[in-house]
Amino acid sequence: MTRNHTVSPSDVPRTPAHPVEANGVRLCVQTFGSEADPTVLLICGAASPMEGWDEEFCARLAAGGRRVVRYDPRDTGQSVTSPAGAPDYTFNDLIADAVGLLDALGVDRAHLMGISMGGALAQCVAVTSPERVATLTLVSTSPAGPTGSELSPPAERLRASFADPAPEPDWSDRAAVIGYLVAGERLFAAPASFDEEAARELSGRIVDRSTDIEAASKNHWALREDEKPVTVRLADVAAPTLVLHGTEDPLFPLDHARALAEGIPGARLVTLDGVGHQAPPARVWDTVLAAVLRHTDRN
């Protein structure tokens, strides 16, 4: 069992974001908490750098007795980049990056927490490297393999946006890029809970930290096909699994979460009222953190 902590989030030790060599590439990583505690590896969604996992959220999770690791996936933040629109890697490379990062940090086994595409990556790691995965926490995501039944499509507003996407900004114009990112966040969030001021502040930090914000915004949507893609059968996921899902998710409606919870043996579903396809907002952190700490209270 995890040892008890009395440290407050403000006192949690944390490293500055820094580069490490993982899976043969440079990834930028930041850690929170003590190396003596069980590691929780946070895996971002598509086109999202480590800021997709709020720093205060990470500190509160670490204050509960976890070593928390967040990182910039390829082409985001300050990790290795490819030319915009031409990523030189595949989805399988992103799977291997997560395992390679554990190797680089000297972690034999970790709790994986992935959001959206990061949830799919976490499922893939769980079936390709099960010995490295203590538990899974899947946030705002969908089964990474067949379920045997048809799942609900995205909401009409998203389908319309996919069919007629917004014009690209001038990528050299900071204000225009921030506005473009905020508009994208608004599209996926639950309308009643969207915080434009917070989204604008976060988008500004992302733009300012990104080596190439155009590549960060495009390349995960343009990945090369894998010759041998990973096949996930939910019944083969052996890691204890927690599913966290917003009731207002417009990309993956709630039946996607139910398919995960029903397909993965022993999985548990916690719904987040009024939350869309987004990182859990601060108003549900108490619920999310309590669930994650309870779920990961095993070594």
From TrEMBL:
It comes from the Bacteria. One of its GO terms (molecular function) is hydrolase activity. Signal peptide: none annotated. Residues 38-277 form the AB hydrolase-1 domain. Keywords: Hydrolase. Pfam families: Abhydrolase_1. PANTHER family: AB HYDROLASE-1 DOMAIN-CONTAINING PROTEIN, HYDROLASE, ALPHA/BETA FOLD FAMILY PROTEIN. This is Alpha/beta fold hydrolase. It comes from Streptomyces niveus (Streptomyces spheroides). The lineage of its organism: Bacteria, Bacillati, Actinomycetota, Actinomycetes, Kitasatosporales.
